[in-house]
Design brief:
The protein is α/β, with parallel strands linked by helices. Helices cover 40% and strands 21% of the residues. GO terms for molecular function: DNA-binding transcription factor activity; kinase activity.
Length: 388
């Protein structure tokens, strides 16, 4: 089936609101047929709104509607049309590639994960991703023609004009490469590319426990620190597709030179790389970010102290960001998000200390609800929202 090119939707637009409402109906109907009155009660949408959206879905071939009776009254029963279409998300990290596949109703069908060596090249990683993509489709019983698009997440800023990774990325080997042509040739499907923090925000907004939230910030803490911002239900990407680079906000308390060339960036004191460097200086035997939670949960005082300091620094940046955006929710992702007492709690306390009273009283701070899958699910959401 021929589809129009995937194009971004304006943040907070009426079409974005309608797409979210349509998705709410899909998620309910994924559990089985329902009457329009039941859909209205379940979603809180007006009967007229439900009727209009259902009519659009029927016209598009996404649903069927037939007359029935409910409580002795005439009613319309709505069912999703059986479809084999799926979207695939690919999350490329500093040391891994992860793939997931899901339906338009946000039903997760399968996933694949492969560890990668530090310094992996784009060519080698693409070969691994394609191999895992084929294996994933075989596992879930789909053909390449069933895939409406492939979303790909990269840990670094991406210039959406040229589809290239720009300076400051966690994968310096990928800087300057025009990724889109090679990806589309390899997958033979439409491809969208996004920054991993931005996709983390989409993953939470579309697959997480907070799908009713229209305004949220997702903070990804890893080798780098980035923020994905959802406003009015849509991703805020900025004029060039580069936004949310809070890892390079300057802190007065630090004058360490950052990899971006500036001094005192948040990443120099609060990234997993900086934590690992400090732990090694303190005589701890650590090699990867997974070692940090292990040490903290064993009661290592140095690890706990470094985590608290990192949480407070990220909380300060989060407070400034919250003052500007006024989100309902701040979600923290990455390998440290499991440390609620040692990391999330000092982060939240610092955020509240650096935010204005109304923000302080209303914004919530929570760990990611989808864990390691968040960014890959966000890559799926990037495709599904464009196709709606």
């Amino acid at each position: 089936m021929t589809r129009p090119p995937l194009t971004p939707r304006a943040p907070g637009s009426q079409s974005a609101l309608r797409a979210r409402n349509r998705q709410r109906l899909r998620e309910i109907l994924a559990d089985g047929p329902a009457t329009q009155a039941q859909l209205s009660r379940s979603t809180g949408l007006s009967p007229a709104t439900v009727s209009n959206i259902v009519a659009e879905m029927v016209d598009a071939g996404a649903a069927t509607r037939e007359a029935t009776t409910s409580s002795g009254r005439r009613a319309w029963q709505v069912s999703l049309t059986a479809s084999r279409e799926v979207a695939v998300g690919v999350d490329i990290g500093r040391r891994h590639v992860r793939l997931v596949a899901a339906t338009a109703a946000r039903q997760l069908l399968g996933e694949r994960f492969v560890p990668l060596p530090v310094g992996h090249t784009a060519q080698r990683t693409l070969a691994v991703a394609v191999e895992e993509y084929r294996a994933l489709l075989e596992e879930i019983g789909r053909r390449n023609e069933d895939v409406i698009g492939v979303g790909v997440g990269i840990p670094g800023p991406i210039d959406q004009r040229s589809h290239t990774v720009i300076e400051g990325a966690i994968l310096p080997e990928w800087v300057g490469i025009d990724l889109l042509p090679g990806l589309e040739r390899a997958f033979n499907r439409p491809v969208r590319i996004g920054n991993d923090a931005n996709l983390g925000a989409l993953g939470e907004a579309h697959f997480g426990d907070h799908r009713e939230v229209s305004n949220l910030v997702y903070i990804k803490v890893g080798t780098g620190i980035g923020a994905g911002i959802v406003v009015g239900g849509s991703l805020l990407a900025g004029a060039l597709g580069v936004s949310g680079e809070i890892g390079h906000m300057g802190l007065q308390s630090s004058d360490v030179v950052c990899r971006c060339g500036n001094r005192g960036c948040l990443e120099t004191v609060a990234s997993t790389k900086s934590l690992l460097d400090n732990l090694r200086l303190a005589g701890r035997d650590v090699s990867t970010s997974e070692d940090i939670p292990r040490l903290a949960q064993s009661g290592d005082l140095a690890a706990i102290r470094f985590l608290e300091d990192a949480g407070r620094a990220i909380g300060e940046a989060s407070g400034h960001l919250a003052n500007i955006l006024g989100p309902e929710l701040i979600v923290v992702g990455g390998p440290l998000a499991c440390l609620e007492a040692e990391f999330i709690a000092p982060l939240e306390a610092s955020m509240r200390r650096h935010s204005v009273p109304l923000i302080r009283e209303t914004v919530r701070v929570l760990p990611s609800s989808r864990g390691d899958l968040t960014e890959a699910l966000g890559a799926v959401a990037l495709i599904l929202t464009d196709a709606e």
